[in-house]
Specification:
The chain is of the alpha/beta class. It is 32% helix and 21% strand. Helix 4 packs parallel to helix 5.
Length: 180
């Protein structure tokens, strides 16, 4: 089964307290994201890439503006140069990673059957990714120890809706154990 890991929006503006749109507690998942990315057969890392006047800023404060430090991924989430071919960086200007038309084409070219999803924000961009992948007929697993929410109640609802739609929740430990 062709598996692709999805590292959703783990960018400095979201992951650390100094970030423009910090997700409280997100820094705690960086080691898990790093471990998952290193073990991934292939990882697609989505990244917000906003212009200064992006329409999304009518909803959310400025964040992840192209060419700013906040738009970058933490070094720990990037594969080193010898493994860089296993990490695809996919920029997006909208919450939904499928707003980048390259993603659907890439999934088809890769023959993807299974997606392992993690990152931020559980009830927003992780939700869009997980449900978008389900909609495309893939087996989708969200790694519970490698996501962070802004609203825990909304995250619980997302997990419930996701499972009802056929998605699977998996712990980091279970995923790593199954990969052995």
């Amino acid at each position: 089964m062709k598996t692709v890991f999805f590292d959703i929006d783990t960018q400095i503006d979201f992951m650390y307290p100094a970030g423009a749109l910090y997700v409280p507690g997100a820094e705690r998942i960086v080691p898990a994201v790093s471990e998952l990315n290193r073990r991934a057969p292939l990882v697609i890392s989505t990244m917000c890439a906003h212009a200064e006047d992006d329409p999304e800023f009518k909803i959310y404060p400025h964040h992840c503006v192209v060419c700013t430090a906040g738009q970058l991924k933490p070094a720990a989430t990037l594969l080193d140069k010898s493994d860089a071919a296993r990490q695809v960086i996919l920029e997006k200007q909208e919450l939904d990673c499928f707003s980048n038309p390259r993603l659907s084409t890439l999934l088809a070219e890769l023959g993807t059957q299974r997606a392992v999803v993690y990152g931020v924000v559980t009830e927003i961009c992780v939700r869009f990714a997980a449900f978008g992948l389900l909609k495309r007929g893939l087996r989708v697993e969200v790694v519970k120890g490698a996501v962070q929410a802004l609203d825990e109640g909304a995250a619980r609802t997302m997990f419930s809706d996701f499972q009802a739609a056929g998605g699977h929740l998996i712990s980091l430990g279970e995923l790593l154990e199954s990969a052995r």
